[in-house]
Specification:
single chain, mainly alpha, 85% helix, 0% strand
Length: 107
Amino acid sequence: MYSYTRAESRQRGRLFRKGLRQALADNVDPALERKIQAIDQAAAERGQRELNALHTVRETARNAVAQAKAKVRTASREDKAAARQALRDAEQQLKRSERAVDKAERH
């Protein structure tokens, strides 16, 4: 997964267009390719850190759902409704975090 900043995207685009013009003239500067690779490497590292953070959030949400289920099972009759609502909220958070992880892994 790559995570480019706006500045990196603009710079990479400029370098790519410059490289394209040079390729048409059969005179590609190797420094241009190194700059693009450096930008790609930084974006890949950032993307990996973000993906790891999303996995952590997903695991936290899974634990929250498990705790909420335990509270529903052990709640008194008066507290059951609140425990069920907490379970629904935890499940919704889990769905959002799973969608975010799936989306990040596809890109």
